[in-house]
Design brief:
Helix content is about 75%, strand content about 0%. With about 240 residues, it is mostly helical.
Length: about 240
C-alpha cells in the first residue's frame, strides 16, 4: 500500500506538476467511505471498496475545480486546507463516532472470511492486487497520449499550450484518477486497521509526508522511483527503529 500511495503522488507531482501536501484527504475519505458503506448502508466489504473509489473520484471533481484556481505553493497549501476541511467534517459524523472514531463490528470483519489467517491472507492479496492495478494504470497512462501530454506540461507548460495541449483538462483527469485510486488505497488501509478516527485518517505525517520522502528518496518523475524509495525507507525505518 505505501508503494501505491507513493506511485500515485509521484504521478500527480512528478508528471502533472501538481505538488499536493493534502493527499491524506483522500486516504481518510476512503477509510470513512468504507466504514459508512458497511456500517450505515449495510453493504458487503468487497462491494464497498470499489464504491469508495468511485465516490472519491466524484468528490474530487468539484475539489479540483476549486483548487485549480491556485498555482505553485498556493496550490500545495490549498490541498492541505481541503484535507483539514475533510477532517473537521468527519469529526462531526456522530454515527461514526465523531471525534473519537469507530471500530468495524466483529460481524462485518468475520463476514470477510472465516478465520483470522484467511482474513489476513485476503487483506494481503487485496493490497497486492491494488498495487498491481495502480502501477499498471500509471504505466498505461504514461504510454498513452495523456502521458506524452503530461511529460510536455512538466517540461514546459507554455510550450505545451502553444502546441495545442489542453493543460487544464489533462491535469483534471489525472487529479480525479489519482483521487479515486488513493481513496481505494485508504479504504484498504483502514480495513486492515479495523478502526478509524479523524486524526488517524487525515494524518499529514502518515499519508503525505512519508510518501513525499519515499518518492524523493527513490527518484521523483520515474516509474520505479516509488518502489525503490519504499524499499529503502522501510529498510531504514526497521534497522534504525531502536535508536529512538
Amino acid at each position: 500500500l505505501p508503494i501505491s500511495l507513493a506511485s500515485l503522488w509521484n504521478l500527480l507531482a512528478g508528471y502533472a506538476g501538481l505538488v499536493s501536501v493534502g493527499q491524506q484527504a483522500y486516504v481518510g475519505l476512503g477509510g470513512y467511505m468504507l466504514f459508512a458503506l458497511t456500517m450505515l448502508a449495510g453493504l458487503p466489504i468487497l462491494v464497498a471498496l470499489p464504491l469508495a473509489a468511485v465516490a472519491g473520484a466524484v468528490i474530487a471533481m468539484p475539489v479540483a475545480a476549486l483548487i485549480f484556481r491556485l498555482r505553485g505553493a498556493y496550490f500545495a497549501i490549498g490541498t492541505w486546507v481541503i484535507a483539514e476541511v475533510f477532517r473537521l467534517s468527519a469529526a462531526q459524523i456522530s454515527a461514526l463516532g465523531g471525534g473519537s472514531g469507530a471500530s468495524l463490528p466483529a460481524g462485518l470483519v468475520k463476514s470477510l472470511a472465516q478465520g483470522r489467517d484467511m482474513r489476513e491472507a485476503l487483506a494481503y492479496w487485496l493490497a497486492l492486487g491494488t498495487m498491481t492495478l495502480v502501477v499498471g494504470a500509471i504505466f498505461l497512462i504514461l504510454r498513452s497520449r495523456h502521458g506524452l501530454a503530461l511529460t510536455a506540461i512538466r517540461d514546459n507548460e507554455l510550450a505545451s499550450r502553444s502546441l495545442g495541449i489542453d493543460i487544464w483538462r489533462t491535469k483534471f483527469v489525472v487529479y480525479v484518477a489519482v483521487a479515486g485510486l488513493t481513496t481505494l488505497v485508504g479504504a484498504l488501509i483502514f480495513l486492515q486497521k479495523l478502526r478509524i478516527s479523524p486524526d488517524a485518517a487525515f494524518s499529514v505525517n502518515d499519508w503525505t509526508a512519508f510518501v513525499i520522502f519515499i518518492v524523493v528518496i527513490g527518484g521523483i518523475g520515474t516509474l520505479e522511483g516509488p518502489i525503490l524509495g519504499t524499499l529503502v525507507f522501510f529498510a531504514l525505518r526497521e534497522t534504525m527503529a531502536d535508536l529512538g
